[in-house]
Write a sequence for this structure.
């Protein structure tokens, strides 16, 4: 698996200074002011790479790209990379060769922004390593847990109740009974039609008072004259005596 991992570049800075530092005499940390900052022991290019979960600080020649020293880093912050107590532009790194020997040297950047980028590239890489470790741990714990079987066993069934209505196989659903205080409507008649009550025929009193005019018959002229006599008879009777009524009938007979 290690052979299949590829190396990626995290940060490249063209100018870095390397210093030989005196051994640390106390646990309070390194101080850049104890170094000969005006006379660096080596100057070149810094490149931060990663392969798998391990990061590498590589010091290379600016022109040829030849490797001068390399510092593998397994965790950050840690003993492989330390900051100094009196500046943010200088660090102490632990370099190693192929034989297993190691030494501590000081590195420094002229620009403060370069030092910030170098620090952030290491922080981002090991933040990713931490997340990958947690995800791998959770997946392993999930594999060891007993799996929950939610499938139906042979012959197992379930029953569903939709609202308050239950149905039986081969039968119709029961009607819902209204609660107390509710209104229940009677079902419509089997024919589906409601009979309209008949309209009563007009009465003779309404005809006499001119409320509803009688139908006009088209049989003959004599019948038309009789109908007109019936319509005008009440008004004439109220104004003339009985003899005048008799003469009125005679006038209509002469006219016909």
């Amino acid at each position: 698996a290690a052979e299949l991992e590829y190396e990626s570049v995290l940060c490249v800075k063209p100018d870095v200074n390397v210093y030989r530092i005196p051994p640390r005499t106390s646990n309070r940390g390194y101080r850049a002011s104890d170094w000969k900052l005006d006379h660096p022991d080596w100057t070149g290019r810094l490149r931060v790479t990663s392969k798998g979960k391990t990061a590498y600080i590589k010091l290379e020649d600016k022109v040829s790209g030849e490797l001068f020293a390399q510092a593998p880093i397994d965790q950050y912050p840690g003993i492989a990379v330390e900051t100094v107590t009196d500046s943010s532009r200088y660090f102490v790194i632990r370099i190693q060769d192929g034989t297993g020997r190691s030494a501590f040297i000081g590195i420094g950047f002229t620009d403060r922004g370069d030092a910030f980028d170098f620090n952030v590239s290491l922080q981002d890489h090991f933040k990713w390593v931490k997340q990958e470790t947690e995800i791998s741990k959770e997946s392993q714990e999930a594999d060891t847990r007993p799996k929950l079987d939610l499938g139906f066993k042979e012959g197992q069934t379930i029953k569903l109740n939709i609202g308050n209505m239950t149905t039986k196989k081969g039968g119709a659903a029961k009607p819902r009974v209204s609660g107390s205080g509710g209104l229940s409507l009677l079902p419509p008649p089997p024919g589906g039609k409601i009979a309209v009550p008949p309209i009563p025929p007009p009465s003779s009193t309404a005809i006499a008072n001119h409320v509803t005019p009688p139908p006009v018959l088209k049989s003959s002229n004599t019948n038309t004259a009789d109908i007109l006599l019936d319509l005008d008879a009440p008004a004439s009777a109220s104004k003339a005596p009985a003899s005048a009524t008799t003469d009125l009938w005679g006038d209509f007979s002469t006219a016909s």
Notes: Residues 205-211, 235-245 have pLDDT under 50 and may be disordered. The beta strands are 7-20, 42-51, 54-60, 67-73, 81-83, 90-96, 102-108. The two ends are 133 Å apart (CA to CA).
